[in-house]
């Protein structure tokens, strides 16, 4: 027995693992495998187990095809109430058959299998399948992203109790049940739930994750999605108010007569709100209090939006930057715009006639009386400076920039695996946060400042505080790149979206995962929390709105139409309109008011409410060949959009 | 690519590997080595491209760039490829020979000394931010920064196939006026499609714009006129006002031809030119108004008060150019535009001998003949100019056979007494020489060359 058959090697590896030297030697002698010939398979344990249990079918690669065919026939002929749930089983079985064939060096048969049954798999698995089908040799499995994900984790399939007993009967009736039985035993986690089988729409709503659906039990933890009690800040009737209005020319020229007079802060006792001290938040500084007061005053002048009162949109076009500008952010009071570039620089523009000023030099600062009331004004340079400033420091494309809530700091993250904190008073880099091993895709501030969160190619999200150079928490669990991250408005939770097509919610206090939500059919590029904190919108090529209470999707928007990915998503400040900006150069406005209303009123049958996106689309505004990079609602509900002009084509 | 024609297992061919091996100096590569290499390289390439897609997505692009590949190589701890910087896509060229087919990218050798001695290239423009209103209270203003509300394709479709508009449901995507509550409800309850009578309601702003533009175009202030024409030529979203504009032009031409107001006719033709130049407009529906107006400005017997003094020839030339532009843009096999226009001009040149030779000469033909005998020289000039603008082939077929007859008329006019006539004849002669010379030269060229060779 000269050839090194896979099961033999697997046995060797097993022996070696349990340190059974004598047996190993005997086996080697008998199989006439010299030391030199020994190739370590270097496979994960699950794979070895499946090899050992399945080795007798190895001789017959044809049985795979017929076994898959039989399974398909059984599912097709089963009753409709079981059919759709059972059909979710096909894909994982198919994947592991393919991997099995590759493992036993039956490359030809593996390719036949994928050519024959690949095209009939669900459309959202096609991308994965294309990636998986590049693996054609057993030594490629180790080190390949997607093959490792499949072989190291169990695919979750949810079945009703009846459906699972149907399946059991089918497997027992088979003449050679071992292939499918082995795959189900080793690679698939069957979640049996009581109650009737689900319909096609219900199955489709939550299917799509790289490892199937989320397990219901994982979403049992209570999430405090309510908002924090706002610290009491008097509505300072500053005398500067009138003057300030003239300084903001970007606001709509004519004031709407309809003002939201009965604007009040949230009722004091929200049952869903976490206690204010659940996460330690920094004390507000004097300047920050003033800023908060300003925000409240602005908010009282907010325009009420709705299907009949659409927001005005001011579009900022970045000229001469085709293929160079990557990301943009507008600070909370809409006075500054920051843009991150492919060439590693970050630029900040002022959007008001007020120019960007720096702090005085150290010698001059010494002369200033620290007790003076207007010390904050005095420390700034008197002469007006530029309308834009450039920050250099990164050594790779800048994928996200973000202003802190009080617009004194700026965060940026880059391909060079660092996050940088910039001062908008000194206009220099203050801190470089190192921790991620690869490119950092996203970084976001906590709405209360001080904390920020980052996500990257290393499949982990990290929670940081500005005064620590190491992360406070590392959230690991995603199976692929974490593409986007966002703080919950109450700063207690962090949401992440990933290329593994799941959205997860993490608790900042405990560092654990409290929600895992599946249903996306494509990688997720952006997230947005509604102003009330209960809803989370996430977008890849489609937009899904999730109810954080249950962890289930409340609505799927634009699944059919959006072919280009959406990279910008924002809720209006009064929670009535959701705006999305797409790479196909359109801004779409969705009627979120009625989405949330219907989702809450028909909660019992919420899943049937999906896919009616046509009626939720209020309007779509095309731009002139400018893909949208960022969207922002001002405190008065004016929508600001940023895009780069790509030239006439 | 649809699922059916997607192949899951594409790979580099052994041949390509052998070609590559040759290019690095390995003359003979064994087949199994080549196959092993092909498989391995295919796998690695695919994995790299898959990862590069991530960088592309995060750069918010839909096109993979070279920098994405570089970043992926860095991710995989492979030295990136230096010196491959290309902002656009790199076209592959194809070559075959010796039974082999290769695709390659063209790389030109660059002479460094040339670059050093050349003037430094211009510094690229710095990135700048520009703000505009994409929407005001849910309505998209029609400013140059916004895309035209109705794309040219849609306008074209509408003029070619008007039914398509009725079949479409209320189009929410296209920006226009949002339907107010009541109108929307009415629309929803209506089950019968009634063709709307007044589809061209103009908003107050549009009415003001129309008034401003038309006044500026025919007013006396040259600066304002330039601005107005610029606006007509560049602004998107004028299609709603097109019917009014075209009527304005056609009525204006009718009135001013009678009054012989040369200046106004010129201004109106410049408006036509501006509308033709506007990229966002599709004028086909309005040609029935524009073509007669333009034709009038080409062949009318009198366009100005003092034909002997004013330069109405320039207007005829300009209008003839417009006509040829219209013909080129809108000629289709269904409307036969160019044929009809050519026939129109050719009729003016018809000479008696030709019509007599043709069979079936009716009384109407006879009157035609009489008329063309009397065609004023100015109209003749216009007709010839109109034909000349349509190309040398037209000149050859329609003007060349009439040269003798034209010559006779010119002789008569040049020797005649009328000062205006003599001037016109002089102009006509000059123009004929200019138009015919290149055509005749082309016709005569082959024998000349032949002679030169035999000598």
Describe this structure in words.
Chain B: Keywords: Initiation factor, Nucleus, Protein biosynthesis, Transcription, Transcription regulation. Chain B: Belongs to the TAF6 family. Chain B: One of its GO terms (biological process) is RNA polymerase II preinitiation complex assembly. The complex is a heterodimer of chains A (649) and B (455). Chain A is built from 19 helices and 29 strands. Chain A is of the alpha+beta class and 649 residues long. Chain A has two domains: 42-198, TFIID subunit TAF5, NTD2 domain (Serine Threonine Protein Phosphatase 5, Tetratricopeptide repeat, Alpha Horseshoe); 217-324 and 449-649, Lipocalin. A four-stranded antiparallel β-sheet of chain A has the order 4-5-6-7, with no helix packed on it. Chain A has a four-stranded antiparallel β-sheet with strand order 8-9-10-11, with no helix packed on it. In chain A, strands 12-13-14-15 form a four-stranded antiparallel β-sheet, with no helix packed on it. The longest helix of chain A is centred in the first third of the chain and has 16 residues, at 62-77. In chain A, 45% of the residues are buried. Residues 236-267 and 604-610 of chain A have low confidence and may be disordered. With 455 residues, chain B is mainly α. Chain B folds into three domains: 7-82, Histone, subunit A (Orthogonal Bundle); 202-330, Alpha Horseshoe (Serine Threonine Protein Phosphatase 5, Tetratricopeptide repeat), CATH 1.25.40.770; 341-455, no CATH class. Chain B is 59% helix and 4% strand. Chain B has 20 helices and three strands. Chain B has helices at 14-23, 31-58, 66-75, 112-117, 152-160, 163-167, 181-189, 204-218, 222-234, 242-258, 262-277, 287-299, 312-330, 337-348, 352-357, 363-374, 377-389, 392-399, 403-415, 419-454, and strands at 92-97, 100-105, 128-135. In chain B, strands 1-2 form a two-stranded antiparallel ribbon. In chain B, helix 10 (242-258) runs antiparallel to helix 11. Mean pLDDT of chain B is 76; it is low at 1-5, 168-191 and 353-372. The chains are: A alpha+beta (649), B mainly alpha (455). The interface between A and B is large, with 77 and 50 residues.
